[in-house]
Amino acid sequence: MTNKLLLESLQKLIEPSKMLTDTESLEAYGKDWTKIYTPNPMAIVFPKTTEEVQAIVQWANEHKVGLVPSGGRTGLSGAAVATNQEVVVSFDYMNKIIGFNEIDREVICQPGLITEQLQNFAEDNGLYYPVDFASVGSSQIGGNIATNAGGIKVIRYGMTRNWVVGLKVVTGKGDLLDLNKGLIKNATGYDFRNLFIGAEGTLGFIVEATIKLERKPNNLTALVLATPDFESIMSLLHAFQSKLDLTAFEFFSDRCLEKILDRGDIPAPLDDRYPFYALIEFEALTETIKDEALAIFENCMEQGWVVDGVISQSEQQLKNLWRLREDISETIAPFTPYKNDLSVTISKVPSFLADIDEVVKADYPDFDVLWYGHIGDGNLHLNILKPQNLAKEEFFAKCATVNKDVFEIVKKYNGSVSAEHGVGLVKRDYLEYSRSAVEIDYMRSVKAVFDPNNIMNPGKIFK
């Protein structure tokens, strides 16, 4: 059947205005934030109901057409990229909060709900949704769940997985599964809910999620502390974490700070510049807790781990200090960065970073290399910026040549080649550095059960 006839049959399943085939839409909806792949979808469809999603999946099975889920398209792994005439299924119109239970502190929402809208809803009800990262204003809940999004609060609140207490999913067969139903305790066999979290739409599509909320943190206070070397960052983590319940512990290099300050819209936190910085956040619920934080800070200075620092004195200063870390990804985006999102257990971070830094500097002596990340949970972001005089294709090819060396180090440390960005297309060929061949075989078998015709986001995670 020709594409024209295929699309005519697909059009009958949804509202007339909810399918797009124009060049601009195919380009926009066929990609995510990765800039490596050329989008090439057949069409974009916008279901409004679960029944329409089921009908689309059944159509795809009948005609053996791949489906690619699309949320806010803020991913960095190519999981939402359509490169091979797939139909992109956008959840933009399934974007509502459809239930809230104040006693259970649970929200039922559709997958297209913007993350920030869920955060605002929680705040309006005196509660808190703690999964937080730079793209909350455009990312969608379904995409967050499909990639098990992390962010800046993982040290205290964990990943997205920790907040999903129920899912409704349409499997690759077109079946609708209602998983866990909001229960906190449920010991009745396999938990398919957790199987779909982080599966990147390869097993089925999320059509509804039940999310638990938390009490709102009070009087959040942040310190930005300058250190003479990276080893001191780890000493700070141990010193503060042993005395305080931290809500965040982030780090960034001076090269990251330089890029932020060059924009001119955020004040420099300190008078001088130093190699590395830690951003530490905690709840100053009492003056005693704040005094304890200051005492730890003074002790760290005496030990030589800190050479300067600042503590937030207002909500605006707290926001400014956070922007030093949160705005890095957006700020370096025009430089076409090649990103690696790596993790190891926290105790291994210093030697792990040193080993990788040595390889990167040897292979890319003239490239601008930026380090930042969530040290409190062992997650490092390695960013290599493209020189202006180098073509994008040549730049990415050069970066790819060193991946094997970098991922061999990841494997040596029993780490992950993707801490929070997922696998998608970008890390697909490197999965073996974090997963054994036996594990990957089991993953393929699970995929075959839920998606026997391989129509659900085909080619993602593994070929």
From TrEMBL:
It comes from the Bacteria. GO terms for molecular function: (R)-2-hydroxyglutarate dehydrogenase activity; FAD binding; metal ion binding. One of its GO terms (biological process) is respiratory electron transport chain. Keywords: FAD, Flavoprotein, Metal-binding, Oxidoreductase, Zinc. Its cofactor is FAD. The keyword Oxidoreductase applies. Residues 37-216 form the FAD-binding PCMH-type domain. It catalyses: (R)-2-hydroxyglutarate + A = 2-oxoglutarate + AH2. Its EC number is 1.1.99.39. Coiled coil: none annotated. Homodimer. Belongs to the FAD-binding oxidoreductase/transferase type 4 family. This is D-2-hydroxyglutarate dehydrogenase. It comes from Entomomonas moraniae.
